[in-house]
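Two proteins were folded this term; both appear here.
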Amino acid sequence: MTVVHRIVSFGFNLIQRHFNVGHPTEQFFLLRCLDVVSPAMLLQRPRSNLEVALKTLCLSVMVAHAIALAYDFSQQTDVRLAMDMLSMLSLFVSIILRSTCMRQYLAHINALDRLEKRPTFRVGTPYADESRRNVALQNSRYLGVALVMHSLTVTMYVIQNMVREHSFVKIITSFPVDLSERAPVLERAADLCYSLVGYVWGWYHGATQLTIIVLLRYAITEFRVFLHSLDSLDDQLRQRREQSQGAPDEERILRELLYEHARYHSQLVVVVTHLRTLLRNYSLVHFSFYMIIVATFMTRISIIPGRSAFGLAIPLMATSIYFLETFGMCMLVEMLVQLNRKVSTSLYEFSWPQYLRYGRTIKRPMMLMMMQANMTKDFSAGGMTTVSAELFAKTCRMIYTMMMFMANMANVESQP
């Protein structure tokens, strides 16, 4: 473990020296490290012309990879073999489309990145600092595990493609030309290149879905800090009265305290608006392809398990990654909506009746925060449904229906 820790530390120090990814206690630290190797380029930072050129080249190769698979898919008449290709093609196309959706809203991602770099609310207080630091460490831990799962899946994918002749996930491509008979060595080299591109696909996928999860966790953390501050309003008011010199002006202290919370709550509402805009089209694309990918992978496993353990492990790990990421996104969105609605309850528990003599000093900010909290809207998925735990359960039932349909279709096709 010491050797691994030294290697990881050396890698982080190298990236920090050349790309300024921030401190490990920042919530976006690992995302900035991932942005260095991912061709998605979702975070705003200075980039050299060489970096942009290399990542553009990677994107071009990935698009050619998807086109090659689409070409092979269009030439197939065997249902089961076509299902192999549909599984991988849907995976590749989903990664490209999700990143394309996110690139339409780079301004929202950059706005959230700037807010995370410069927190303004309760900086220096034990609860707020500890909460932000713990979430940053948890993000690094969770994202690190996710990236390890991506790397293991891609490594098995490369081995399976290069070792097995009739691999479940092998790219049986003859695009743009078939070199298997005229130049088998070049054909083998092309297979290796197509397989190694899987690492770029893994980083590309991670840069999109993990960015969404980190942004949601950032918003949830800030809401928890805000709610904790609301729950301790009486203690804060008493503490400020004790710290004031001379006779304390209770109305002024109360007004400043409530206005401070009202301003930050409005900032949190803006954060939620950024996330809602970002997720509107992204979530629709994600759930559409999530159902196709999981249904085709699991159907393929059920009708032709195959002889290779690698061939079985790859689709299981791929579906597990999609399942966990989708479940996490739904639960985080649900939690964020509930925390926003909880603001009105926490604010009402404040001992406001004894301050009613101050009139509008207390009424205006409290009414504003309670109205904003009570008018919280759900996150829309393309205007067709809402992102929630209920949607995740519905997609699981839909996936089962799709699996049964495709399995029956494949069995009918294979019968003489």
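Next, the second protein.
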Amino acid sequence: MKFPLFLKICPPKAAVMYTFITKSELFCFVSVILFFLDFCSTIDVKAQREKYIPDYSVYHNYSMLHREITQIVKRNPNFMRIEKEYESRNKVSQLVLHITNFTGSFNTQISKYTENSRLKILFSYGVHAREFLPTESLLYLLKNLTKGLTFPHGSFEEQFSRYVLSHIDIYIISVANPDGRLYIESTNNYCWRGTETGVDLDRNFDWEYGRKGSSSDPKDEEYRGLHKFSEPESLAFTDLTEKIKFDLFMSFHSGIKHIYIPFADTKSKKIGRQVDNLADMLDLAMELSHCTKYTYKYGQAYKLNDYTADGTIFDFMAGVKKIPFSYTVELWGQNHKGTSCFDLFNPPNEDLKEVLETIHPLYVQLFRYMIDWKSSQVRHIQTEDFVSNATSEDKNTVKARVK
């Protein structure tokens, strides 16, 4: 005879029928139910049987990432620096990079507008520990961008690298959550998402923090932490955006092919809140959605997803920091079945190179679009300044040209 599950675990005395349960047996039954409810709700951060795991002759572990990125920076001192003050709770470097032309030797505009005309971008990678692919795409980007500088003068590769570096200040949080990454490497739990203490950095920011699109349960993968900005890892984001007025923030993830526009939070979904420059953000998202062999769905996060997310980084950047363009980009995903995790977020080892090559044009298109956008903003400011300081005759000339 097959017993009900709870009877297998807490068998009643032989003389007691199923319909008559003692207090101790009832307590045991309730405990089992609560256990299974807890297990089901947190299964995604517990180690699972994986279909495949990373081959570290193909993927990079944290120490390899640190070594390669450091070497790239050392080879290109005129274009790259590491901002060493940004570290995790365990004092592990987040490898925050500043990339631009520090010499100014090939700036295309030398004027009082030069500094303001440079596009300022902030990228983040590795917020979720189990998502290896985004950081691999960063490494691929860094290698390609710097390799172009070694090509013959006047070649397309050399011209494009110099064009990007002369027009953009790029700040990159290469591994936002190094403690979480190291936790995966030491435990082989490829479902682990948060920091070493289990906090999801993407629920820890001061935008609708603490609502139902996050969790107060430390065992839940969307655990938001004890309070907003409770994690030292958040300092890199808040400090950089306090010092620098960025034009674009982009947080890279994996698991699906989506481009998310703010907002993702529960209240925004309820009231239909939108960012001020929604049309511009949709336009860029559309450009990015079809610039690779992949097709990315794009739109407001609370419309694309069947869930809400409170306390996210990209919502904070849009809603609090007022960065004109703020996105979360999910770079890769495929049809997934089962409870395994690594294959949900990361391609097979043998496919990684092809996936990185396919993704790369997204960066190229992003740089081109945003440089053009920034140039148009600068021209508008220059025109306004000229008109405000011009004589009546000059103003009439400008108006005639506009007509």
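The two ends are 90 Å apart (CA to CA). The longest helix spans residues 361-389. These notes refer to the second protein only.
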